[in-house]
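Colleagues,

Please find the record for the four-part complex below.
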Amino acid sequence: MLSAIIIGGSGYTGAELLRLLASHPDVEICAVTSRQYAGTKVTTVYPSLSGYYDSLTYCDPDEISPESIPNVKAGVVFSALPHGVSQASVLPFIEAGVKVIDLSADFRLNNVEVYEKWYCGHTASEYLSKAVYGLPELYRESIKGATLVANPGCFPTGAILALAPIMNCLYDVSKPVVIDSKSGVTGAGRKAAVETSFVELNEGFKAYKVGSHRHTPEISQELSALAGSEVSVTFTPHLLPVSRGILTTAYVWLKEPVTASTIHTLYKDTYTSEPFVRLLEYGLFPDIADVRGSNYCDIGIYYDENDHKLIIVSVIDNLVKGASGAAVQNMNLLFGLDETTALTTPPISI
Amino acid sequence: MLSAIIIGGSGYTGAELLRLLASHPDVEICAVTSRQYAGTKVTTVYPSLSGYYDSLTYCDPDEISPESIPNVKAGVVFSALPHGVSQASVLPFIEAGVKVIDLSADFRLNNVEVYEKWYCGHTASEYLSKAVYGLPELYRESIKGATLVANPGCFPTGAILALAPIMNCLYDVSKPVVIDSKSGVTGAGRKAAVETSFVELNEGFKAYKVGSHRHTPEISQELSALAGSEVSVTFTPHLLPVSRGILTTAYVWLKEPVTASTIHTLYKDTYTSEPFVRLLEYGLFPDIADVRGSNYCDIGIYYDENDHKLIIVSVIDNLVKGASGAAVQNMNLLFGLDETTALTTPPISI
Amino acid sequence: MLSAIIIGGSGYTGAELLRLLASHPDVEICAVTSRQYAGTKVTTVYPSLSGYYDSLTYCDPDEISPESIPNVKAGVVFSALPHGVSQASVLPFIEAGVKVIDLSADFRLNNVEVYEKWYCGHTASEYLSKAVYGLPELYRESIKGATLVANPGCFPTGAILALAPIMNCLYDVSKPVVIDSKSGVTGAGRKAAVETSFVELNEGFKAYKVGSHRHTPEISQELSALAGSEVSVTFTPHLLPVSRGILTTAYVWLKEPVTASTIHTLYKDTYTSEPFVRLLEYGLFPDIADVRGSNYCDIGIYYDENDHKLIIVSVIDNLVKGASGAAVQNMNLLFGLDETTALTTPPISI
Amino acid sequence: MLSAIIIGGSGYTGAELLRLLASHPDVEICAVTSRQYAGTKVTTVYPSLSGYYDSLTYCDPDEISPESIPNVKAGVVFSALPHGVSQASVLPFIEAGVKVIDLSADFRLNNVEVYEKWYCGHTASEYLSKAVYGLPELYRESIKGATLVANPGCFPTGAILALAPIMNCLYDVSKPVVIDSKSGVTGAGRKAAVETSFVELNEGFKAYKVGSHRHTPEISQELSALAGSEVSVTFTPHLLPVSRGILTTAYVWLKEPVTASTIHTLYKDTYTSEPFVRLLEYGLFPDIADVRGSNYCDIGIYYDENDHKLIIVSVIDNLVKGASGAAVQNMNLLFGLDETTALTTPPISI
C-alpha cells in the first residue's frame, strides 16, 4: 500500500485528488494539510466525501515534514499549493528523496528566467532541470524514472494534446498558432472573491488576461520542443459559466498541401494506444460534458484544404486530466502501477 | 425633478435602484455612497451602466449628511445598507424631515423586542411605530402619507401576496401555514464568500436557516395583522442556482368547504386593480422567469376540495418587487407620481 | 459473469445503467434496445461512453425475446421503458422465469384500480402482487428472493427515506404531511420538447402538476404501509434548472412531545447500517450537489419543540438512487452480490 | 402611430420584438402571425407579456396580406421567419410598397450565387440589390431611405463591429482573420429538439458547424467591402450554456507597426457618436452579461506590438443587437424616429 501526502489539500484540486484516490486500491492517504482548515475534518469541508475519509482531518502544514512521516521515502507527495508557495514546501521532500508530484507551475518551465518573468522568484531552481513535465503522452518513459514530476497546467494540457501530432512535421512556422481556450470556473480555485461569485459569473462569459496569461510560456515551451524551433503562440483564455471543463480551439496552418484524411490518420496513429485520448471521427467535435469527471482528452479536427488550415478542438476536465487525474496517472507511472488505476469510471456526461 | 440619495449603493439592491431609476423621468441621482468603493466610478463597478451614470462616483458615507445636500428636504433617501447599520445611517435624514425608504429590515417589525430577538440592538426604535410597511397592496394609502417607509423583505413580499386574500376570511387558524420558498442567489447580496461562489452553488440546491430565518417574524406579523389573530408560520427558505427570482409555495387549510372557483374569484377580486399582481388562470402556475427584471408578482392557485387545502404559488424578482422595484413603487406613491413610473418595461423571460 | 439486457436503453436512465455497469466486474451487457436508435452505436448517441461499449449497438426491441437470448434465465432484464409500455415488454421475460427489474411505474402500486386511475390500463396486473417494491432500506430481504422488482420512483425514494423512521411511531395522523420536492431536469426524460428546452428552463423555476403528480399514490402507499393506516400526502413537485438531483422538504407533525436529540437518534438508528443513507449532524442540511453521480441519500432534520413539528430534508441523485443506481443495487441483491458493487465511487460535488 | 406586422412571431426573435415594442410610444402591433399557434393568445405562449398584449392573438399567416391590412403602406412589416421561407412571405409586401425589415438571411447577401450555395434557392433575388444591409454603424444613411432592410445576422453583427475600424487601413491582407465566436442558446431558435434540450446543453460547451457556418459569407462580404478587397475569414461558432449573448474574439494582424494607443484612438473615433457601441478602456474586456437585454455592443481591444497582432473582443445580446433590437433601431431610422426609441433601458447585468 502506497502512502500519499497531500499538501494544500482543501482546494478543488486537493479535493479532486481525494475523490479519485478513494477508488485507488493501492493508495492510502497518510496526511492532508491545510493552513486554513487545520483541525477540521475533511468531510466537514467536503460533505460529499462522507463515508470515505471520516477519520481524516486537515493538519497544519508546519507539522508535516519528511522526518515526521514514517517510511516517507516509500510514499508520494502531491502538492496542490499555489505556485510560488509550492516550491519551498516540496523542497524538503525532494531533498529527502521522496517522489513528488507538484500540481503548481513551479517546476514546469525549464528556464528560470522565463519562470521569474511570468511568475515570481524561484528558490529551488536547481530542480527545474531535474523535474519531468508530467504529460504522459509526451514523456511517459521519463516520468517512470522521475523523482519530481511537474504536473502540467490545465490550459497547456488541452492545447498541447491538440497540437502535438503536427508540430514536428506539417506545421508552418511562418504562420500564427492561435489558441482560443474556454475554461470552467473551478480553474480559478476555491477562494472567496466577488469576481468568482455565482452572481458575477452566472449567465456571463468573458475573456481574461488577454495577452498575458501565465500558461502562455508553458504552451510555447512544449510546442517549441516538439517543433524543434521557437513557436510563438497567441493564447486567449475565456471563463465559461460551468464548473468543469476546458475546450480549446486551436488554429494552425500547414506548410504543404495534405488531405483531411492524412491529417486524421496522423492523429489516429499518434493517439491510438493512449488510454486517455479519444479521437473523434472526422467532422465530429467534442463537448466538455462528455469528459466530465474523467481523465479523457477528446479531440476533433477539421482541415480546410483550400488554405491548408487545420482547426483542432480538444476538451478535458480541467480538474482531472487538467490537474488531479493527470497527477494520479503520473503517480501510477512513477510506481509501476497500471497507468489507468482509479481513472477508469466513465464520464458523467449528463 | 426629484433628487435621490442612495446610501449603500454598491450592492445588488443599490445597483438595481440605479438600473430602474435610469428610466425614471422625474428622478435624478444626487449621491450614491459606498464605503468600499468611495472614489470609484459607478460604471467601473457596474460596466453595464456605462452611458447612464458616467459622471457618478461613489462617495464616502461619512461625507453625506442632511446638511451637505442642498434642498435635501425635497428629495428622497434610499438606504440599501444591511440591517443594523441602516438604522443609524438614516436617522439624521429622518430627523431632518427627509423622506426615507429603508430597504433593510430595520423598520419593518412593529415590536422592538421581536426585532432585537431576531436581529440586533435597535438605536432608533422610536421610529418603528412611525414607519409604514411598504407593501402597496396592503398599505397604499398609508405609504402616500409616510415619511419613513420600511421596504418589505423579499421572502415576505412573495409570501404575503400569496396569502393575503384568504387570511381574514377562509383561513383555518387551527391548521399550519407552511411556506416553502426558493430564492435566487442575488438575495444573498454581493460579498466575497466561498459559500456564494459559483462553484459551490452551481448545479446545487439546498435548504438553509431551517427554522431560523429572520424573515419569519416579518411574515408572521403581516399575516397576523390580516388574520386578526396570531398566525404561526412554518417558513423554510432554499437557495436556487439562479441569479434572480423567488418562488413561494404556500400550503394552507381553509375552515369551511368552498369551491376552487370561489377561491379564484376571491383572488381575482383582491388583485384586479393592482398594477403589479398578475393572477394566472386557475390551474396554471407561474415561473420565476416570467417576472425577471420586472416588478410583477405572478400568482397561481390550486384548491383541493377534499381536504379544504389551498396551495398558492407566487413568484417575484427578488431584486425588483422583492427590493428595489418596490422601493421605486413606494417612492412614486410618496411623491404623488404615477405608481408605475419606471416600472413598465416587460420582464425578460428568456 | 451476469448477462444484462436493457430494454429501452437510449434514454437517460438507460444511459445511466450503462455508465454504472461499466464499472461492475460481474456484469456484461448482452443487449440494449431502442426503437428510435436501432442500428445505431451506443457511443454515437452517448459519446461519453466511447471506449466502454464500442461494439454495442442498439437493437430493435422486437428482435429481443426470451427465446433469442442464450441462457436467458441466468441473466437479468432491466426495463427503462415508460410506464404503460413497460408492462407488456417485460411480460415475456417474467413468464420465462427471468429476473426483471422494471424502472417504470408499472409494478409499483399494489392496487390495480389505483394504478389505472393515475396511469392507464394494466395488462399484466396479475404480477402486481408478486412484484417487490425495490427500496432496499424497506424491503431488502424480499428483494433478495424476488423475480420481479418494481424500482421506486425518484420522488418517492427521496420522500419515503425522509419520512420512514417516524411513520410508525411518532407521526401524528391527524395533521398533514406536506412534501415539497424539487427535481432536476433529467427527471423529465430525454425527448424533444419545447417545454424541456434549455432556453425555457434556464434561470427558471416552477411548480408543476400541482395536486396531480403520479408519484402521489406511490408515496401514499408506502407511507401508509409504514404507518399502518391510510396516510394522505400533499405532494408538490417543482422543476429545478439543474441536470441532476432531487431535494425533498417534508413537513410532519408529531403526536407527542419529544426532543430533537431523540428524533436524531431515531434517524441514526434507522439508517446506521444502510450503505447508501448518510444522516447529517443535527442542524446541518444536505445539498443535491453532494450526492451527484452517486447512490447516496443524504438527510438532515430540524425539530421544533414548540409545536412538535419535524422538517426533514433529503437529497438524492434522481438518476442514481432515484433510478439506475437503485436498479443496480437491486440487481446486486437479487444475485447475491455485494450490495454496493459498482456504486462505490464518491459523488462529484463540484 | 405606426402599425407593425410581425410575420413569424412565435419564435424568440418575434417575442423579443414584442418585448421591445411594448415600450415604443409610436408603434402599435397590428398583427402577429404564427402557423403553429394560430388562434392562440400571445400571452398564452409568452406569459411574461401578460398585461401588455392581452388582446393579441396569433393569426394564420395565410390570412395576412397587403390587401387585408388597412392603410398597410403606412406601416412596417417585420419578418422573423426562417431563411428560405421569409423571401416568399415578404415579397407581396415589398411589391405593395410596404417597408419591410427581414430578420432572416434572405436579403443579406448581394450575390445570389453565394446565397444559393450556402442556403437554398432564391425566388426573389431581384430584390437582393435593393435591400440595404441593416447595420446602422455602416449604412445609416442608406437605411433611412430604404424600403427593404436585411437585418444582419447575430454573429456577423458582433464580428463586423469588432473589425470594422481597421479593415480599410491597418489590416494586413496577407495574414489570416480568425473569428472565434461563442453564442447563447437562443441563437438556435425555439423548436423542440433533443440537441437543444436543457440536459444536453447544461454544463456543456462545444464548437459546431466548424468550417461550414452560414454566417461565414455574410461576414466575408461586409469585411471585404470595408477592406476594398476579398477577405477570407476563418469563423468558428461555439455554443455557450447561457440563454443570451454572443462573445466574439477576433484575431487580426496589422500591416505596419502602430501603438496600442493609436489603435484605441481609432476605435474611439470610429464609435464615439454611435449610440449603441461602447468602447471599453484599453486593457478591459467585455462580458456578455453587461449587455444582456440591451442593444449595446461592448468592445475591448489588446494590441501586441511585437508581432503587430490585434485581438478584439466584442459582446452583444444576440436577441437584441443581434436581431430584434437592431430591427427596432432600423425601424426608427426608416421612419425618421429617434434612433434609440424603445432601446434605452439599461442592460440587466445580474
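The interface with chain C takes residues 12, 185-186, 190-194, 196-203, 241-243 of chain D (CB under 8 Å).

Comments are welcome before we finalize the supplementary table.
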